[in-house]
Known about the structure:
This protein is an alpha+beta fold.
Amino acid sequence: MYAEFQASQFAPEAQFRPSCHHKCCWKAPHPELVKINSDGAIFPNLNKAGIGVVIRDNKGLILASCSKKLPKAYSGEEIEALAAALALSFASDIGFSRAFLEGDLWTVYRALMGDDYSMASFGLLIKDAKFEAQKF
């Protein structure tokens, strides 16, 4: 598993810029739930993208995490929808059944919560994420 983690890391020349310029605070989920935070990053100069997932309990203790390197630079909506689907699949695979998912792109969140997404460029990715959400 460590080798897979090492292989998923980006080249040192990749530059990271914070997407959030305001103060962000983590908020605890209900004690019976775990909180799944997912995020995607795009590296257009490298034609790559990445996804990260962190699962925490209500005290903020990290219970599990994963990351994935993708060989294509997706759109913001696509990478966030992919991140949501991966996060839900990962959480289900390792045994969590009650969870709260949090991401940072409002259009993806609205699509996950509603039914009006099928014509969006990321509609099939939302469908995948909703399929994974049925496991909770």
